[in-house]
Design brief:
The complex is a heterodimer of chains A (512) and B (336). Chain A is mostly helical. Chain A contains 21 helices and two strands. Chain A has one domain. Helices cover 45% and strands 18% of the residues of chain B. The chains are: A mainly alpha (512), B alpha/beta (336). Chain B: This is Tripartite tricarboxylate transporter substrate binding protein.
């Protein structure tokens, strides 16, 4: 198998002291960047890019990708500790990570997140190794209609899988669509919903919204609860970390499912953020304790983290093979490639195998190094939670404000974050879910573009969504996911029983 | 006498110093400079800004750090609005294409060309008509036109963004060849390239660098270049063909003359005249660096650098041309 041989050559390139030092430095820098909300992996990599101009391309890409891994890991830290996602893709980690940390299990939550993330990333790299040639050709089959079908599946899984009322999910999602429509429209080139207001011409940054909705919104909630956020007495022993790592294999089904979703969304244009949301939503439906998701369930952390990282790794493949970045960070790296004089595209694999396979080998090593390093930081981060709210509260506020500003260096964004903070509070008070809003903000404009491009391609005929097996299957799956709650309700009404009655017969079988 | 002559010498020295001082103290940057790219990361303008940054640091032309930031909102209008609000600031430079003066033609925007100080057009990116030879069955311009005439509107041409260069060029092709095409806007030229490579659409009007890798892989083929003369590079790229082998569109049967895209650098209006002079000289040097020459060769660009009055004259002429195209297409914004 030739890929394996090429991979070994890649290891020969990546396994030098020089490169390992670069990986460690990259991961540490990435951790810092990831922990600070707003700064994020794309900004971090873009700040680091000038340093790489004088390096050789292999070392340069190793530095940048290691930073990316570090940032992906770091992003989960603040999600779990303070409910502030450090990265867009770690929003879904807040749903169960934060409740778990508040129950005094911060070490467990962080360790679960990091180890499942590591597994996800390695799965992603293995997929890249085995399927690199095939994936590039497969990704070429994605036209506008197929793109839309991928987004449609993500949305449908959210409506169909939501625990609350589907109506509220839909309202929240529609508001998200409205927010994502702000700014210039790709298809017509016109500005929409900007009210001739300069600050809105670039649209609303998703990160700013998230910092407000989650970080500040949660802060207002805590204040209302009479500052009950006393320092949580988190257990801080190394044994706790090892014990938790050993716990992960128990969730193998969730890990496997999430890794597959992640790889799929990374290779297709969904990206890590959508992957983590979709994996969380599907996990809630299929996990054993799915109904307890959102209250600090371990699988609620494992599902989004695994998917996030496998998607993050896989997203590099379309970038290298097609020149189509699967994530914002991949876009920055692609810019780097062109400056180093390498052209991303189908020929890169044959013209510069040392570069491609050196990079892939470094992805194995970089992720292992990252997991070890982040696990070592767990006690330090968990310790922060011991501080009482009167210290942590103001700290979170400052971090949120700085985060909102760093996204694009706009003062206006600080006000926007405050506004979203109030919105987040209202959402929670009225029991509207935030996740569909966020998902619609991330994918809304992309889905709209894809839909309209597909319509232009087919001269307005919706049959394009059924024009070949690939897109047809995806659309059908999406529709099934969308109506799953309705179907299961009808089935149970008909007396067949779908979920509630599925368990007793099993135990009966067991007793017999 | 000796005292006097000493005094005289001292005076002369002082006078010389006084005269020399302004010349020696000609403007020089003393803190980091921000390069604002009017495109997202990985886009053409982003790469352009970063190549200039790289050329400056590798060639030791500038010791102050440079920060590249991206303000891609509103098809890049965000960058030029930012320029307006940074009036007189010599530590910010703005990178774009013709978008700086074309965007306000169609959209109501709060900036105008008067808020910008032109610094340089560093190089020109030619446009090429590309097709997927396998899925479309089109091998040359004749075949392209024949196919479009046979079934009007069925040839889908992809491009970056709505209006602006790619869609404008598509309408010019339609008019001069008397054919009917469907234009589909994507976020970037590379996206349009992959869509052609995958056979989802039939053609695009990309810059050489956006499609060259697909050409090497055999999933895109250049039909003709929108220039008055052929491109000069004769290095073989794919199928024994070089950039020079591609016919001009005029010789191949589409009467669109030159449609190159300038890669432009701007400053905010009101920056000190000596700062402008400093940057003008600096970027002239950048255009001569190996780094920048490599960038131009890779992109099969037309190495033509314009500064000062020459650049201003070009802007005026280019803006008039675009106003004409926009007027014909009914894209001009309605007067207030």
């Amino acid at each position: 198998m030739s890929n394996f041989g090429l991979l070994l050559d890649g290891f020969a390139v990546a396994l030098t002291t020089h490169h390992i030092l670069i990986m460690v430095a990259g991961v540490l820098l990435g951790l810092v960047v990831g922990v600070l909300p707003g700064l994020g992996a794309p900004n971090g990599v873009s700040l680091l890019l000038p340093l790489t101009f004088t390096m050789d391309p292999v070392s340069a890409i190793i530095l940048l990708t290691s930073m990316y891994w570090g940032a992906l890991f770091g992003g989960s830290t603040t999600s779990i500790l303070f409910n502030i996602p450090g990265e867009p893709s770690s929003v879904a980690t807040t749903f169960d990570g934060y409740p778990m940390a508040r129950q005094g299990q911060a070490v467990r939550a962080l360790t679960l997140a990091f180890s499942s993330a590591g597994i996800g990333a390695l799965t992603g790299v293995i997929v890249i190794t085995l399927l690199s040639g095939w994936v590039a050709n497969f990704a070429l089959r994605f036209g506008a209609a197929e793109y839309f079908a991928v987004y449609f599946m993500a949305f449908a899984s959210f409506i169909g899988m939501s625990s609350g009322s589907p109506f509220k999910t839909l309202v929240s999602m529609m508001l998200g669509f409205a927010c994502s429509a702000i700014g210039a429209d790709t298809i017509s080139g016109e500005s929409r919903l900007t009210f001739e207001f300069d600050a809105l011409i670039g649209g609303i940054s998703f990160l700013v919204a998230v910092i407000g909705l989650f970080g500040l919104g949660e802060l207002i909630m805590t204040m209302e609860e009479n500052l009950e956020f006393h320092g949580v007495k988190a257990k801080l022993s190394l044994r706790e970390i090892f014990k938790t790592v050993a716990e992960v294999p128990r969730y193998w089904a969730t890990v496997l499912r999430s890794a597959l979703i992640g790889c799929w969304m990374g290779i297709t244009p969904g990206g890590p953020t959508a992957a983590s949301f979709m994996s969380y939503a599907i996990g809630r439906r299929f996990a054993k304790n799915g109904n307890r998701f959102g209250k600090g369930e371990p699988e609620g952390i494992v599902a989004p983290e695994t998917a996030d990282h496998s998607a993050g790794s896989c997203a590099l493949l379309p970038m290298l093979a097609l020149g189509i970045p699967g994530s914002a960070t991949a876009a920055v790296m692609m810019g780097g490639l062109m400056i180093w004089g390498l052209a991303p595209g189908p020929m890169l694999f044959t013209t510069r195998p040392d570069f491609v396979w050196g990079l892939i080998a470094s992805m194995y090593l970089g992720n292992i190094i990252a997991v070890i390093l982040v696990l070592a930081t767990v006690p330090m981060f968990a310790y922060i939670l011991r501080a009482p709210f009167r210290i942590v509260g103001p700290m979170i506020t400052v971090v949120c404000m700085i985060g909102a500003y760093t996204v694009a260096s706009h003062t206006f964004d600080i006000w926007l974050a405050l506004l979203f903070g109030v919105a987040g509070y209202v959402f929670k008070k009225l029991d509207y879910p935030l996740a569909p809003f966020v998902l619609a903000m991330v994918l809304g404009d992309k889905a709209e573009d894809a839909f309209r491009q597909a319509m232009l391609t087919s001269n307005g005929s919706a049959s394009i969504f059924w024009s070949n097996g690939l897109v047809g299957t995806m659309m059908a799956l999406g529709i099934i996911l969308l109506f799953l709650p309705l179907i299961s309700k009808l089935l149970s009404k008909a007396g067949i029983g779908f979920r509630r009655k599925a368990l007793p017969p099993q135990s009966e079988v067991g007793s017999v | 006498m000796t005292v006097n002559s000493l005094k005289l010498a001292a005076l002369t020295a002082a006078a010389t110093l006084a005269i020399a001082a302004p010349a020696a103290a000609e403007w020089k940057p003393e803190r980091p400079i921000e390069f604002v790219a009017a495109a997202g990361p990985g886009g053409g303008t982003d790469t352009f800004a970063r190549v200039v940054q790289s050329a400056l640091s590798k060639g030791n032309l500038l010791s102050d750090p440079i920060i590249v930031s991206n303000k891609a909102g509103g098809s890049g209008a965000e960058t030029f609005i930012y320029a307006k609000t940074s009036g007189g600031d010599p530590y910010k430079l703005f990178f774009g294409t013709q978008d700086a003066y074309v965007l306000p033609l169609a959209n109501k925007l709060s900036y105008s060309l008067n808020d910008l100080e032109p610094v340089a057009a560093m190089t020109f990116d030619p446009f090429i008509l590309w097709v997927n030879p396998k899925s479309s069955g089109i091998e040359d311009v004749k075949g392209f036109i024949a196919k479009a005439k046979e079934a009007p509107g069925t040839i889908k041409v992809g491009g970056a963004k709505a209006k602006e260069a790619d869609e404008t060029l598509t309408t010019l092709i339609e008019k001069s060849a008397g054919i009917d095409l469907s234009y589909i806007p994507y976020k970037s030229g590379s996206e349009a390239a992959v869509q052609v490579a995958g056979g989802h659409i039939q053609a695009n009007v990309n810059n050489p660098s956006e499609s060259v890798e697909q050409w090497k892989a055999g999933v895109q083929k250049p039909l003709c270049v929108f220039e008055e003369t052929r491109l000069t590079d004769t290095t073989i790229i794919a199928d024994g063909q070089s950039w020079n082998s591609i016919p001009t569109c005029q010789e191949a049967g589409i009467a669109v003359k030159s449609f190159a895209q300038p890669r432009t650098i701007w400053a905010a209006k009101g920056i000190p005249a000596d700062a402008l002079a400093y940057y003008t000289e600096l970027f002239k040097k950048v255009a001569q660096t190996e780094e920048f020459k490599g960038y131009m060769t890779r992109g099969a660009q037309i190495p033509r650098t314009l500064t000062g009055a020459e650049f201003k004259a070009f802007i005026d002429q280019h803006k008039v041309a675009y106003s004409g195209y926009y007027k014909d297409n009914g894209w001009l914004k309605t007067a207030d």
